[in-house]
Specification:
270 residues; alpha/beta; two-stranded antiparallel sheet; 11 strands; disordered N terminus; binds zinc ion
Length: 270
């Protein structure tokens, strides 16, 4: 960059941000270390190449905070969106974690604020199958219901074989042998956009906020318009749909959990 004053640099950067589509990576012209403000947007620089910017997207505020972890999508198209709940309520901890290697594309806070961590043009690591060889969840799913439904989640709980926690999955997806028959397929990270909804503080009963449902519906529609995605229940999935071994427990389905109202979100998408 030429040696303009910091004000000129900010103006240039602000114009660049305002022109850019939301899915485009923007690199900082330098590494500012202070809070800066601009008439059209608020800019906060957190780390190298990581920033937040407030823009209005319809009635929702989109905050963008891109991770430096970059994985190209290669040849697999996006076909679905996968909804999660965070499993933790501490925002600082959640953000620190998502700025590492594992995290969603988007995070929705209690007030409906959306933070984007990864460009949708890139793969985010939010629902990969774990384990090695025979113990890998994907390997087990390939063997069909009779095999994977007997995979008992390791601690903290112990349950009897067969694992009754998977029966709820089966009721949600009658006729399917395994989650790899869903549109998300054998490699769900590569075929999806991942959205984490901040978990309610009070789990009994857990209740997501109206603002979270509204932001989620808007974000699902926004992504669908950008990537030509279908918005029915087959294409807006929960983490527990694509990986029940990891996300269905004897105490109930936990990601996005039993408190998540699918009928409500589906009716908002019509
Ligand atoms: Zn999840």
């Amino acid at each position: 960059m030429p040696s303009e004053s910091s004000g000129d640099l900010l103006e240039l950067f602000a114009q660049d941000l305002l022109r850019s589509p939301l899915t485009e990576q923007i690199f900082l012209p330098q590494k500012p270390s202070v809070w800066m403000s601009h008439s059209s947007l608020q800019l906060r620089v957190c780390y190298d190449q990581v920033y937040e910017v407030n823009k209005n997207l319809s009635n929702m505020q989109l905050v963008k905070n891109l991770s430096t972890v970059k994985r190209p999508r290669r040849d697999k198209p996006i076909v679905c969106q996968i909804v999660h709940t965070t499993g933790d309520t501490n925002r600082e901890k959640i953000f620190a974690y998502y700025l590492g290697k594992i995290g969603p594309h988007f995070f929705i806070d209690y007030d409906g604020t959306i933070t984007q961590f990864v460009e949708t043009a890139r793969v985010a690591w939010h629902c990969g199958f774990q384990g090695e060889g025979e113990d890998n969840e994907g390997e087990l799913y390939e063997k069909g219901w009779e095999v994977w439904s007997r995979r008992i989640d390791k601690s903290p709980w112990k349950v009897e074989d067969p694992y009754r926690g998977y029966e709820t999955w089966r009721r949600r997806w009658p006729g399917l042998q395994s989650p790899i028959e869903l549109v998300s397929g054998r490699y769900p990270n590569f075929t999806s956009i991942g959205i984490e909804v901040r978990e309610p503080e009070h789990r009994q009963p857990a209740k997501f906020f109206d603002t979270q449902y509204e932001a989620l519906a808007e974000l699902l529609r926004f992504n669908a318009a950008n990537h030509q995605l279908v918005l029915d229940r087959q294409h807006v999935l929960g983490h527990y749909d694509v990986n029940p071994i990891a996300r269905c427990g004897p105490e109930g389905d936990r990601d996005p959990g039993e408190a998540f109202d699918w009928d409500r979100i589906q009716s908002m998408l019509k």
